[in-house]
Design a protein that fits this description.
Length: 94
């Protein structure tokens, strides 16, 4: 759960060094795939800034080493290339 929290927090705070990336790492973000199937694959390609992912829920299977996330952008909230959303102001709830 700590890995997932660090990943979500990285979107708001840009603290990518706190995310415990594995190696090799494959990540699909916004339809863009980071891995090429080689041992050097990395997920440290950045994330959009200023995106506060709230209302987090976790399902944990301690026998797996993978972290999967699924996010939903509510209607009326558009996230553009810079990660800056339009619509209502940022939520501070976690």
């Amino acid at each position: 759960m700590a890995a997932a929290i660090a990943y979500f927090d990285a979107f708001l705070e840009q603290k990518l060094d706190l995310v415990p990336w594995g190696y090799p790492c494959n990540r699909t973000e916004g339809g863009i795939h980071t891995g090429k199937g080689v041992p050097e694959d990395s997920c440290q390609v950045g994330v959009p800034g200023g995106v506060n992912i709230v209302a987090r829920r976790f399902i944990i299977d301690e026998t797996l080493r993978f972290v999967h996330t699924l996010t939903h952008v509510p209607e009326g909230r558009i996230v553009g290339r810079g990660g800056q959303g339009r619509g209502r102001g940022p939520d501070t709830q976690k």
